[in-house]
Structures are given as structure tokens and as C-alpha cells.
Automatic annotation (TrEMBL):
InterPro entries: ATPase_AFG1-like, P-loop_NTPase. Keywords: ATP-binding, Cell cycle, Cell division, Nucleotide-binding. It holds the Pfam family AFG1_ATPase. It comes from Microbacterium dextranolyticum. GO terms for molecular function: ATP binding; ATP hydrolysis activity. PANTHER family: AFG1-LIKE ATPASE (PTHR12169:SF6), ATPASE N2B (PTHR12169). GO terms for cellular component: cytoplasm. This is Cell division protein ZapE.
């Protein structure tokens, strides 16, 4: 059995490697509009799908099926589409479907964190030069942790849109409400509204599909079951084994853009002694890690507190509430997989 300790890893990623990684996560390699299953109980899902098919075709009308089939006229579209909705309604699937469907010569797909990290690695002007002339930029999880990062992305968008770059983004918060409950500086709010002018916001309602498939909560194992789970997983591939508090501390020493490299080659993640997080910075880093583990679809096995209770109650009522709830949804899926 191959056992690694994530706390021993300090991955380094070059700018070129970061650019090469700007493609949809493996779980969305085959994501298409056809494989997006719109819930008939929420018509906004099918409506969003139709609009996005038109967007990926450059605004072409979408054919509707039925006895009296008629092309649904696509509205005049802004250079960007912004998918707003709760977690687990398929926004990232639709974002990847746009990426795969658009016949673009140069297109990129990455999380907000990956794009801002690239600016940090290459510098702002070199990043602009890199993306100038790109046909499509897909930005997943456009959520606000730092107003400076959002201003950088706003400037980047402002330079690319006039050159013909199309934009597609997802978030749990519409673009004119980013930062709500977190920051209130007027100059920052002006930046947000400027960015919002580039996007047509498309609301997607629905329930979390991950919860529909899971009965209950995150699974916490006792020591014996944990050891057996890692042994079973180790018979099939590499597993990691780390003490939770030490692991959370280690995350502070690794840039979030490198979290995917942190779990490179790992088939199952093991965390011992999970305890509720009280520090918001540590909690947000853990959220970013969970996002990358979920992208890679790596199961998590854990002891201690259940992972759906890892965020302190006051965090769940604060400005990052939606972010924490999305992480809980993903943790439930990964501990049950």
C-alpha cells in the first residue's frame, strides 16, 4: 500500500503549467448540453440551457422539440454570461458544456483562484498579453475573498472584452452583489458594477443534486474503520493519511492554485481527528482544498467530527455562507463516495 502525507508536499507550479491546466476538470471532460438533465420542476434550468446553447453558437436560435417545433429566438446577448444559482444545480456542468460546444481556436477554463494566481505568477501585463485574442474565457466560482483580486479580474475583463473575447462565469452570487455582507468600499462597488455590465445574468433555480443522491450527512469513521478503509483503498491505489489540524495548518503554506498538485496521484484522502474550524482564514483555505478534491473526484475518509460540521455556526451565518454550504455539499458527496 502506498501511503503519502500531504503535509510533506510543497508543490511548485510554473506559469506555463498553470496555463496548460486551464481546461475543465476531468469529471467534466464529457460535459455537454445533451448530458445536462434539466429538472422539470425548475423551468429556469431548461431556459438557461437554451440560452447557453445559443450563446455557444454565437447567438443562433435554439430549436425546441415538439409537434409544432419552432426556433426560439435568442435575445441580444452581452459578451458574457453569468450563471447565478445555488450550489448543486449544475452550473459548472453548463460552463464546461459551453467550453466544449463553442468552436473556438483559443479557449480557457479555470477557477477564479487559478486566474488570479496566474496574474500573480506572470504579472498583470503578461497575463493580458497571454489572453488577448482568446475566443472564450470560462471562470468558475467567481466568488469574493479579496477585493484586490476581484479588481484585478475586473480590469482583465475590461481589457479583453473590447478585443472580442467571450466570457462565461459561475457563482452563487450575481455579479452586482459580489462582496455583499463583506466589503462596502464605494470604489470597490463601482468596480463590481462595471464588471456586471459585461455579463447577462442567467438565474438557475433548483435543489442540490448531490444531496438528492445522498441519504444523511458526511460519514465519520472510528479508528478501526478508518484504518480498514485506507487499507482497502490502498489495495487499489495511493492514499494520503494526515492529522486534520496539521493538514489545515499546512494549507497556509501552499497557494490555493497549487492545491490540485497537492493531491496529484492520490486516489483516496485520509484525515484523522477532524475538529470544527474556528479561524475564518483557515476555513476558507479548506474550502478551496475541498473544491479541488471535488474537481478531481477523490474520496475522503475521516475520523473525529463529521466534515459537514467542520465550519463554526457563526461562519454559516456570515458573508461566506454560500461558500461554506457548497463545501459541505461537496464533503457529503466525497465522504459517501
Amino acid at each position: 500500500m502506498t501511503v503519502v502525507h500531504l503535509t510533506d508536499r510543497t508543490p511548485q507550479v510554473s506559469g506555463a503549467e498553470m496555463v496548460a491546466a486551464l481546461v475543465p476538470p476531468p469529471q467534466f471532460d464529457g460535459a455537454t448540453f445533451e448530458t445536462y438533465r434539466a429538472d422539470p420542476a425548475y423551468p429556469s434550468q431548461q431556459d438557461a440551457k437554451d440560452v447557453l446553447i445559443g450563446f455557444s453558437r454565437g447567438g443562433a436560435p435554439v430549436e425546441r422539440s415538439g409537434l409544432f417545433r419552432r426556433a426560439k429566438k435568442a435575445p441580444e446577448m452581452k459578451p458574457g454570461v453569468y450563471l447565478d444559482g445555488g450550489f448543486g444545480v449544475g452550473k459548472t456542468h453548463l460552463l464546461a458544456a459551453i467550453y466544449h460546444a463553442m468552436p473556438a481556436r483559443r479557449k480557457y477554463f479555470g477557477s477564479f483562484i487559478e486566474y488570479t494566481a496566474l496574474v500573480g505568477a506572470l504579472g498583470y501585463q503578461k497575463t493580458v498579453e497571454l489572453f488577448r485574442g482568446a475566443d472564450l474565457l470560462c471562470i468558475d466560482e467567481f466568488e469574493l475573498d479579496d477585493p484586490g483580486d476581484t479588481m484585478v479580474m475586473t480590469r482583465l475583463i475590461g481589457e479583453l472584452v473590447p478585443t472580442g473575447t467571450k466570457l462565461a462565469a459561475t457563482s452563487n452570487t450575481p455579479p452586482n452583489a459580489l462582496g455583499e455582507g463583506r466589503f462596502a468600499a464605494q470604489d470597490f462597488l463601482r468596480e463590481i458594477h462595471t464588471m456586471a455590465a459585461s455579463f447577462q445574468t442567467i438565474r438557475i433555480d433548483g435543489t442540490d443534486y448531490r444531496q438528492r443522491a445522498i441519504d444523511g450527512h458526511s460519514i465519520a469513521l472510528d479508528d478501526g474503520a478508518y484504518a480498514q478503509a485506507l487499507a482497502d483503498a490502498g489495495a487499489r491505489g495511493a492514499v494520503s493519511d494526515d492529522e486534520f489540524s496539521a493538514f489545515v495548518t499546512h494549507l497556509a503554506a501552499v497557494h490555493p492554485s497549487r492545491y490540485l498538485r497537492l493531491i496529484d496521484g492520490v486516489d483516496t484522502i485520509g484525515l484523522r481527528g477532524v475538529a470544527q474550524l474556528q479561524d475564518q482564514s483557515a476555513a476558507l483555505r479548506f474550502v478551496a482544498f475541498v473544491d479541488r478534491a471535488y474537481d478531481a473526484q477523490i474520496p475522503i475518509r475521516a475520523t473525529g467530527e463529521t466534515l459537514d460540521g467542520v465550519f463554526a455556526p457563526e461562519m454559516l451565518s456570515g458573508g461566506y455562507r454560500k461558500k461554506y454550504l457548497r463545501a459541505i455539499s461537496r464533503l457529503n458527496a466525497l465522504t459517501n463516495s
